[in-house]
Design brief:
Layout: H1 8-19, H2 26-33, H3 37-50, H4 73-83, H5 89-98, H6 107-116, E1 143-152, E2 157-165, E3 171-177, H7 182-196, E4 202-204, H8 220-227, E5 232-234, H9 244-256, H10 266-282, E6 319-322, E7 328-331, E8 334-337, E9 346-351, E10 357-362, E11 365-371
Parallel strand pairs: 1-4, 4-5
Antiparallel strand pairs: 1-2, 2-3, 6-9, 7-8, 9-10, 10-11
Helix pairs in contact: 1-2, 1-3, 2-3, 4-5, 5-6
Amino acid sequence: MPFKECSLMSEREEFCRLAAMPDANKRELCRRFGISPQTGYKWIGRFRSDGDGVLADRSRRPLISPARTAEPVEADVLEVRREYPAWGGRKIRRVLQMLGVSDVPSASTITAILRRHGLLDGPRAGEARDHIRFEHARPNDLWQMDFKGHFALGEGRCHALTILDDHSRYALELGACGNERTETVRERLEGVFRRYGLPWRMLADNGSPWGSSGGEKHTRLTVWLLDLDVPLSHGRPYHPQTQGKEERFHRSLKAEVLDRDSFADLATAQTAFDRWRKVYNDIRPHEGIGLDTPSSRYAMSQRAMPETIAPPDYEPQAHVRKVLHNAWLSFKGRKINCSKAFVGRQLALRATNDDGVFDLCYRRHVLSQVDLRQNIVKSVHHVPEQVSTLYPV
């Protein structure tokens, strides 16, 4: 998509930052942003030499303007706090350091200043907490996806769709949606994939549209993701900690945006989301990554979204079967029940090292296993954890 007037600066800044990452494919990046290589290289050159201040005619006032003179330290702290009312001592200290303020006090001192001015929410605010964090080693190894519930607008309701990179915590999408339907999520995902590329895997809960209340593992949306070679994993039911990074992102969104404003319609909500997403990615220090910003750790995926999706092409030795309208397929005289999302599609049964046991696959992804040694085969067994879920391309 070409640069839009309403978000011209954030688009250009994001383009230049992604282009500056190691091994970035600049021509591919120009294509994803919908601009010519000449325009792209012009902005990259200006960004490298002068920073983002010359990307457009605008005020040179920085996003955060703490006092740089000999005023009391408290004035510096309180000015950042006024700009970002939900931030505590650790974040404020990191921002002051990044801005080059001299003699930055400790986080505990900043917390004491905030407490003295009545700016903390409770008696335990600002205290250190023990956390155990797990993250993937590289950007785009895993993206987490969820809806932040829904809330009332002046007209209708907003369903906030969020997509987060597990390694960097980079917010890839914060969308003000009118519903949680498959078509809506797919349209948003297409925009994200065209901009940032494809992840290697995604994680979501068991709700619609990527999960099924009827217990089926696959939906129309997850099958489309498999067509793009992006498998989707589901968190354990009633265990929101599986998506802890998304849950924490939602808490920040609520505290820093939703609790502080109301919106007339989806357009005004999206404008607020876009503004805060830039702050979250580029300015706000993130405690989960050592008070770095998510944008300092994120690089776009090298897996570009394909323009067209080819049908499955299975190897000759695979047993290929079409899923019938009743969600069954026939194999060696047995009827095997499949997910309704695969009706009309061709699946492959691949022999394993165990006699009579076959992997039931869609493209190179193992969906489940079929054990013909059982007397009755009406359902498909879950794939054991030790079984590979991918076949070679």
